[in-house]
Write a structure and sequence with these properties.
The chain is mainly beta and 200 residues long. It contains three helices and 14 strands. It has a single domain, classed as Beta Barrel (Cathepsin D, subunit A, domain 1).
C-alpha cells in the first residue's frame, strides 16, 4: 500500500468522529517489531513498553446501551487492516452481515445507507438526527435503533446507530463506536489479526 493510501486511511478514520465526549480510556503501544497494539487494560501492556504507551481518552456511550445477552463472556474475531483502519465482521439484527471499522474515537456506531436498506429501515420517515464532522463538513445523520449487533458471538441489543456512509468503500457496512465497544474490554492483536472481546 502506498504512503498516500495509508495517510488517506488515517485521515478518513479521524474525520468521522462524533461530538460528545466521555470517559473510557484506550492504551496504544508499539512493540519491537513496529506492530501497533491497543487495549483498554494497562496491565495487558508488557512492562518494557509501558513507558512509551499513549493513553487515548475515548468517549462514553449514551445511557441505556447495555447488553442483554449474558450467555457469552469472551470471544475473538478475525480482523483485517486497510492502512490504519481495523475491520471486523459483524451481524446486525441477527440477519444482515457486514464488515465494520473498529473506531474507539466515535461515540456512536454507524451503518451505511446500503446496510439500512438491507435492514428494511425506511429513511423517508422522520428520525432524530445528530451532527457529525466529516471530510466534507458537518452532516446531520439520522439516528435509528438496531435490535442487535453481534461480533464473534458477543451481542449488544437495542443499540442506537447513525446512518451515514463513513468510508468510500462499498465493502464497508459502517463502524463500531463506543456505544457498542464500551460494553467490552478489548484487545487488538494486529500481529495475529485478531480482536479479543471480554464482557464487562
Amino acid at each position: 500500500m502506498s504512503r498516500t493510501s495509508y495517510l488517506t486511511g488515517v485521515f478518513l478514520l479521524l474525520c468521522y468522529l462524533a461530538f460528545p465526549v466521555g470517559a473510557a480510556d484506550i492504551y496504544r503501544w508499539v512493540d519491537d517489531k513496529g506492530v501497533v497494539h491497543f487495549s483498554d487494560n494497562p496491565y495487558n501492556i508488557p512492562q518494557k513498553y509501558r513507558q512509551n504507551t499513549t493513553q487515548i481518552k475515548a468517549k462514553e456511550p449514551p445511557p441505556g446501551q447495555q447488553s442483554k445477552a449474558p450467555f457469552l463472556d469472551k470471544a475473538s474475531s478475525r480482523l483485517q487492516k486497510k492502512g490504519a483502519v481495523v475491520i471486523v465482521p459483524a451481524t446486525l439484527n441477527e440477519r444482515a452481515e457486514g464488515q465494520f471499522i473498529v473506531d474507539t474515537g466515535a461515540s456512536y456506531t454507524m451503518i451505511s445507507h446500503a446496510t439500512a436498506k438491507e435492514l428494511s429501515i425506511d429513511l423517508s420517515q422522520k428520525f432524530p438526527t445528530m451532527p457529525f464532522q466529516t471530510a466534507n463538513g458537518v452532516v446531520h445523520a439520522p439516528l435509528v435503533k438496531l435490535d442487535s449487533i453481534d461480533v464473534g458471538g458477543l451481542q449488544v441489543r437495542d443499540l442506537t446507530a447513525a446512518v451515514h456512509d463513513v468510508f468510500p468503500d462499498a465493502g464497508i457496512s459502517g463502524l463500531l463506536g463506543l456505544n457498542f465497544l464500551s460494553n467490552f474490554r478489548l484487545d487488538i492483536d494486529t500481529e495475529g489479526s485478531i480482536l479479543h472481546l471480554e464482557r464487562k
